């Protein structure tokens, strides 16, 4: 217990310092510390410092926020942090993500010609930061995204019945969630038989097994690969000019 509290104190103390350097690992280190800081605004200060150092918003979203969250999770698994600390830290990183992604979200609002991705986070999934990062990446690439959080198979069916999609992406956080994903895929087949379904996330490893168990068309955590498999590579990209 003493070792656990000591490691937590180290992180909280570090959160009050500036980034030690300007590399991406420096940004990740600072985001981890700031997510655990007593000051809930420290994450935004770190992002501002990172952009001043030359990193654009897309780089912070794609290469820093996710790895920072994964590091917090690893610390919890190794008894380096309490679950409550990880939950609060992930929520702060998600708040930063929403702030950085505001321009991309609003930029897609009037593009009715953009292909539509239905992004599904199944019911019972505890953490949604990864899918939220994916949503931001998709919108930045020029796609329109419908985001279903804590979704049951019936929720997915109702949504597709009234709002068709060009592809359905389903988040897989753990292999123990394969059964509910299989039920989601079954509902997609009932109302949109020709719509490709892609399973992605941290738990995607043996893609052939996942497709067999769930009935999905594809399983990959590579976004460009997923778009190619769904025939959506011709989408015009939104240029990210935010620095």
Blueprint (SSEs and pairs):
Blueprint: H1 2-14, H2 24-35, H3 42-52, H4 57-77, H5 83-100, H6 102-107, E1 116-122, H7 129-140, E2 144-151, H8 153-162, E3 167-171, H9 178-191, E4 197-200, H10 207-214, E5 218-219, H11 223-229
Helix pairs in contact: 1-2, 2-3, 2-4, 2-5, 4-5, 4-7, 5-7, 8-9
Would you write up a description of this structure?
This protein is of the alpha/beta class and 243 residues long. It is built from 11 helices and 5 strands. A 5-stranded parallel beta sheet has the order 2-1-3-4-5, sandwiched between helices. The termini are far apart. The model is unreliable at 1-17, 106-110 and 234-243 (pLDDT under 50).
Short précis:
With 243 residues, the protein is of the alpha/beta class.
Properties at a glance:
5-stranded parallel sheet, globular, alpha/beta
Write down the secondary-structure element order: HHHHHHEHEHEHEHEH
Distance between the termini: 43 Å
Widest sheet: strand ordering: 2-1-3-4-5
Report the β-strand fraction as a percent range.
5-15%
Our count of helices gives 11
